[in-house]
Design a protein that fits this description.
With 126 residues, this protein is an alpha/beta fold. Helix content is 48%, strand content 21%. The chain has a five-stranded parallel sheet, sandwiched between helices. The longest helix has 14 residues, at 10-23.
Length: 126
């Protein structure tokens, strides 16, 4: 499973990288701090999964469709500052959502539940 991480805060990006590589056995093929960098990473690497800060997506309503056009089959999990952002993220077309205040176990659960390929590829976490 190949993933791109798009988050403006380096410490959050670092934590996500550790969680997805060590916890779920994914390969992080790109990282981005801005929407433009995210779009470049998705075009260049054609990942299976993008974990994206909601603030980056809120810049343009068509971002998710554009990303999926660049990488067919792309799953997008959105990160929000507050749990109440979940309905808006899912309504915008996200495949999953977690909050920056959620425990790591919750994040892993969202990532495992979202793209079936994670569980099929890695066997999931025990």
């Amino acid at each position: 499973m190949r993933a791109v991480l798009a988050e403006g805060q380096p410490t959050v990006r670092d934590a996500l990288r550790i969680l997805v590589t060590q916890g779920l056995g994914m390969q992080v093929v790109g990282e981005a701090r801005t929407l433009q960098a995210l779009q470049r990473q998705v075009r260049a690497h054609r990942p299976d999964l993008a974990i994206v800060d909601w603030d980056l997506l809120s810049e343009s309503a068509s971002v998710l469709a554009d990303l999926r056009a660049c990488s067919p089959g792309l799953r997008v999990v959105v990160i929000g500052l507050r749990p109440e952002m979940r309905p808006a993220a899912l309504a915008a077309g996200a495949d999953g959502f977690f909050s920056k205040v959620d425990a790591p176990e919750v994040v892993v659960g969202v990532l495992k539940a979202c793209p079936r390929a994670i569980v099929e590829t890695t066997g999931g976490l025990s």
